[in-house]
Design a protein that fits this description.
DNA polymerase, domain 1; Cytidine Deaminase, domain 2; elongated; alpha+beta; single chain; 232 residues; 43% helix
């Protein structure tokens, strides 16, 4: 019986071997497709791994952010030559990249504008498929004391308890807070529920002389600032 043979990196010509290219020229010389090819290791009959990787990247609009949203079934059902193990490898690598970006954002010590708040929270929540509600706690000098997640929900609703947020602010000796949540729809426009929750948290914080500095709605390509739009 004929058995198909996976095409491995060793079967390629030298100029098509991403591993050799990485060793010779450095990791930054590789394209996204070549990096994915290294993760996959092999393609299938009629589809060398570099071509498979290029197809995957093209199918996700040449965007690693879009690819990071893919699920294991998305990859295994759509691409011949990708089983669960390879799909897990791709998803894990992209999650590591997301966490590294998140760590870089959290390391920034001071926030003094809506753009800086957005830049800080974008790598944390922008690409999620569900909503999450986060709070940044600041001191009088706008130095970040803590960043905490207070709730998650569906694509259309997120719950956050104003009492717990204020309690946490007091625990951190924060004098100001910034609220942040994402819209998986990609539309950075506040809902009526967003406005009501913001007002509730504003009043609860104000009672304890805690300033609500801003509320940021985070999307991948844009953001909405309640303060910039005069809603706080």
């Amino acid at each position: 019986m004929f058995r198909s043979k996976n095409i491995t990196l060793k079967d390629w010509s030298p100029e098509d071997r991403p591993r050799e290219k990485l060793l010779e020229k450095g990791v930054r010389s590789l394209t996204n497709a070549e990096l994915i090819a290294i993760l996959l290791g092999s393609g299938s009959v009629g589809m060398p791994v570099v071509d498979l990787s290029k197809k995957i990247i093209a199918d996700y609009n040449h965007s690693l952010t879009e690819l990071a949203k893919a699920t294991i079934p998305d990859l295994t059902k759509k691409y011949r030559g990708i089983g669960v193990a390879k799909a897990v490898t791709i998803i894990s690598a992209l999650e590591l990249a997301r966490r590294q970006q998140s760590e870089q954002a959290i390391d920034k010590p001071v926030i003094s504008s809506s753009r800086e708040a957005y830049d800080r929270m974008k790598p944390v929540i922008a690409s999620l498929k569900h909503e999450e509600f986060w709070v940044i706690f600041l001191n009088r000098a706008n130095k970040v004391l803590a960043v905490k997640n207070f709730g998650s929900g569906t694509q259309t609703a997120t719950l956050a308890d104003p009492r717990m947020i204020v309690k946490s602010a007091l625990d951190h000796n924060a004098t100001a807070i910034i609220l942040a949540h994402n819209h998986p729809s990609g539309v950075a426009k506040p809902s009526q529920e967003d406005k009501i929750l913001t007002d509730q948290i504003y009043k609860a914080a104000h009672f304890f002389s805690i300033v609500l500095f801003d509320h940021i709605i985070v999307c991948e390509t844009e953001f909405f600032s309640f303060r910039d739009e005069g809603l706080i």
